[in-house]
Description:
This protein is α/β, with parallel strands linked by helices. The protein has two domains: about 10-210 and about 335-395, Rossmann fold (3-Layer(aba) Sandwich); about 240-320, formyl-coa transferase, domain 3 (2-Layer Sandwich). Helix content is about 35%, strand content about 15%. It has helices at about 20-30, 65-70, 85-95, 110-115, 120-125, 145-155, 155-160, 175-190, 205-210, 215-220, 255-265, 280-285, 285-300, 305-310, 330-335, 355-360, 375-380, 385-395; strands spanning about 10-15, 30-35, 55-60, 65, 75-80, 100-105, 130-135, 200, 240-245, 250-255, 315-320, 335-340, 345-350, 365. Strands 5-2-1-6-7-8 form a six-stranded parallel beta sheet, with helices on both faces. Strand 1 (about 10-15), helix 1 (about 20-30) and strand 2 (about 30-35) form a beta-alpha-beta unit. Helix 1 packs across helix 8 (about 175-190) and helix 8 crosses helix 9 (about 205-210). About 35% of the residues are buried.
Amino acid sequence: MSGERKRRVVLSVEQALSMPYATLRFVHLGWRVIRIEPTPAAGRRSPGDPNRYIGRPVADGGRASYYVAPNVGKEAVAIDLKRAEGRALLCRLARELEADVFCTNTMPARHLTLGIDHDTLAAARPGLVWCAISALGAAYPDVPGYDPMMQAMCGYMDLTGLADGAPLQCGPPVIDLKAGDEAFAQVLLALLGERDRRIDISMGQVAVSWLQTFLPMLEMGSPPSDIKRAGNEHRQFIPVNAYPTADGFLYVAIGSDAQWRRLVAEPMFAALDDPRHGTNEGRRAGKAELHAGIGAITRAHPAAAVAEVLARAEVPHAPITPIEQVMELPFVAETLLRTRAPDGRVIRLPPPAAPTPHLAAAGGELPFAPAYGEHTDAILAEVGLGAEAIARLRAEGTVG
């Protein structure tokens, strides 16, 4: 249509979570995302992305619960990139579909043999933005990368858990998601012409980039004990912690001396009013005593009563929401996305990071995650292959 802006096209050789999450963010913008998975390997019962088979089965075609949410709204083709004809087919897709972006989180050591390296695809589709995520970037092509491993390597587990306990991983796969967000941002910058069109994301680098309030403190004389595992406490602001009440826990976060003064001005907490605690450093010096004193007070009252006092004092606080109740939080419930499973079930999905016109126009609903190879025939036909050619490619094992 004249004057209508072309829909962006993303081709992605993706699996697991880091790159699928990045390309999900393109889906949220209304872009067309085509995920490319390998054809079935001999003796392997579960073809394609291993994540298809993780969690509870939801639909056929390898669509288990762990796979669905990061892959809604996408299309899926199966191509054997180990074959020359498969690699040529990928270049044809890039060219004929006028792809804007190519993404992959395959190990860099495999890029060239699969024909998914920057130079090969840029030659087929000049101007293509090429983006890769790997454990440590192209300089370390043989290093595999999974979120827990990267959390261990990059210090996250040394920062997570109780002070006298074992190192723990963060609950959400934060490094996978951070890498995906970084890929999303860098692709947008490349399309704006503000960076090179060859993008190489290191999960290790993006992970360490988040240690802004940790590593520099070591450089400026803080002992490691100041920044290591502290349970639910904040390492610098005191008091910030989870406190017991008569019917559950409440998280309280004092972020300034003014908030502390308002807290102890309330009769419930007046017993804690002590000149020694007037500054954050003073509260730090007596934090064990302070945490115990606050807990003794809060334990004697229902959470609602404590929350009422904290609200009156304008002190930040929150209940510990069970994960099964997060979707019922008002600000979440009104922004959730939805998809519809093949059997008709409506499945609620996390909201987008920010509102977008595309999602608003779609009523917040996205097509269900694609089955393995679901769109292979349709996409090959779109780039000019006839039924006989497609049948031949399938018989040879080039497509699945």
